[in-house]
Specification:
This protein is an all-alpha fold and 334 residues long. Helices cover 76% and strands 0% of the residues.
Length: 334
């Protein structure tokens, strides 16, 4: 059989496998959209204050969610509506904190440190999944989670790991690093929250709509209080700002659907670390920001971790399947 034929058949088999696994498609879409948002923010950061960018992202999330809600008219579940609204409210507060804290961390610390620390979230998710969701504690799970974190550190090569002296670190930098650590914890809790919310079959539009309802007023308030509001001067800037919000909306929606579909948040969040690889490629192609050979080794480790966590997770059934007691923190709904 010709090599071309073998490659073609292998590609078809691989594509069929991916299309039958919706959580992989959702994760890849979420990673791509988050990466687009990251690159757009990098493009906009010298043109607008961070609070202005945050407000536009919030406006994009709210507008896209409102349009989605009007078009599809997805109803809220008719069960315990008070509990559902409570979960959405808590999730929205966490999402608002995550977006704001991540923005501040990127400004106060270096982007390398911020990304490296925030992407330690897989290890936090792994621990929370075992404690709260009854997921199995497996050697493969913890190994690939840690491997992904090591890969992120090699790609970003944060100064805190590669030579910054303690005496040279300012209070502002320490604050930024601390905020990045807080963002990693918030991101991990958010992914676990998606698992709880998904258990009630809540449409993703309500997740993003509640997020926008809280983030947009917060962003407008911050811009007015600190008097940093500025308007775009060209259609290109308007398009970039609007696209950042829409990309963030699609990223959050896809991440929620991935967690809901997979039922094992640690697999999804580890796949999400591939965002670092996509951003690395994108920043080189668009802005000619180069990396070192160590960074490329880190990218390889991230991909190995993503593939490994997905393959190892395939043979592990959701512990809640057919056993409601396996997830003591989650109530099953019909």
């Amino acid at each position: 059989m010709a090599p071309a034929t073998v490659c073609a058949k292998a590609s078809v088999v691989c594509l069929d496998s991916i299309t039958q696994r919706k959580e992989v498609l959702y994760s890849l879409l979420s990673v791509t959209m988050y990466s687009c948002a990251d690159l757009l923010i990098y493009y906009l950061k010298d043109r607008f204050h961070m609070f202005v960018i945050f407000t536009w992202i919030s406006a994009g999330i709210f507008t896209a969610s409102a349009i989605d809600g009007v078009v599809r008219r997805s109803p809220l579940p008719l069960g315990d509506r008070r509990k559902v609204i409570g979960l959405l409210a808590i999730n929205s507060l966490l999402s608002s904190a995550s977006e704001l804290v991540t923005t501040l961390a990127n400004v106060l610390a270096t982007p390398g440190d911020s990304v490296a620390i925030i992407n330690t979230a897989p290890t936090v998710v792994f621990v929370l999944s075992v404690l709260l969701l009854g997921d199995p504690f497996t050697l493969a799970g913890i190994s690939f989670s840690v491997l992904s974190v090591i890969g992120v550190a090699l790609v970003t090569q944060p100064p805190i790991l590669v030579g910054t002296l303690v005496g040279d670190i300012s209070n502002e930098y320490i604050t930024g690093v601390s905020l990045a650590g807080g963002s990693a914890i918030i991101e991990a809790v958010l992914v676990i929250m998606y698992r709880f919310i998904g258990n009630y079959d809540i449409p993703p539009v309500y997740v993003t709509l509640f997020n926008g309802l809280i983030c947009l007023p917060l962003g407008l308030t911050l811009c007015n209080v600190f008097d940093v509001w500025s308007t775009p001067h060209s259609m290109g800037e308007v398009f970039a700002l609007s696209s950042t919000g829409v990309a963030w909306y699609l990223a959050v929606t896809s991440l929620y659907l991935a967690v809901k579909e997979k039922q094992r948040p640690v697999c999804v969040i580890t796949l999400m670390t591939s965002e670092v690889v996509i951003v690395m490629i994108g920043q080189y192609l668009l802005f000619r920001v180069e990396n070192t050979w160590i960074g490329y080794i880190g990218a390889l480790l991230i991909m190995v971790a993503c593939i490994g966590i997905e393959v190892s997770g395939n043979g592990v059934d959701d512990p809640a399947d057919g056993n409601e007691e396996a997830h003591p923190m989650i109530e099953k709904t019909s």
